Peptidase A1 domain-containing protein
Amino acid sequence: MNISLGTPPFPIVAIADTGSDLIWTQCKPCTNCYKQNAAVFSPNSSSTYKTVPCQSSACDSLQIEVGSYCSSNDGVCQYEASYGDQSHTKGDIAVETLTLGSTVGPRRHVAFPKMVIGCGHDNAGTFSPKGSGIVGLGGGSVSLVTQLGPHIGGKFSYCLVPSSAAAEATSTLSFGQSAVVSGNGVATTPLIPDPSQPTFYVVQLEAVSVGSKKIPFHGSTVGETSSGNIIVDSGTTLTLVPTDFFTQLSSAVESQVTGSNKTTDPFNNLSLCYESGPKLKVPSITAHFKGADVALTMENVFIKVSDTVACLAFYGNDDVSIYGNVAQQNFRVGYDLQKHTLSFKPTDCTQKFF
């Protein structure tokens, strides 16, 4: 997503991630920065950038959420955050003006002062050079969604373009009233809040149908909730499910795929792969959430790992279950944090819809 930081506004391209909270970007001076295509943000060039002091209630309150700590001689509150793929970012906690583009009203851009951000001086892992950092959209106190608070009424949505889209196609992110997902074809399921893990958006997945075969889903509950069993995460590629469920799912898919030969993943990561092409036909697959049936397309179920190979975009994992971003492509996915609902609407995300 495109945001700007500082005064004057400095453009940032960041990855929107519903599975984390912190807003951070790579910052000069770089102790260890990954290569990015755009220029790196320089705090010294912004008149509104201000670090958070070590001896402050703000630094103390962020300790659990973003791993804030104090070790430097300059008295600046620091942070360290890591992600599921072992990527990490370290740097300074600061407050800064964040500017977003607007599609409503007379102003094309809206600035929000004193937003808590991370200024990353040591960042490494699997980050793409197309992005400068991450915008956390989770439910924690420092996420963009929470910090925008009353400005957006607890509503946001995104529409992820499929991996097969043209290079110039971009995913969209909306806030406030323009983020409401409505009309024909909308499927809505309850969000299940868990105070012990406020970052995550948790729902209940009841089953997945492959053709006429319905496979019950019995994932472990997330956190202390009694019924939520899967996290919806825009920052995770694959859908992670328990190993026994994955075995049943892949077997059902394999028995119903036609028109193509099985092959192997050239990267040895995924287990059920086929020669890709127009002859590959996959069965209809539906995710049955509580109160919401979401029909998936082939692009939601299979991911191209090379020009000639497509693999099932699910992975067996006995830790936490995650509904990943491949399954969400070409849907408007709407979050209403006041009503505690999550909505899906099939949409061509390469087209503008507002």
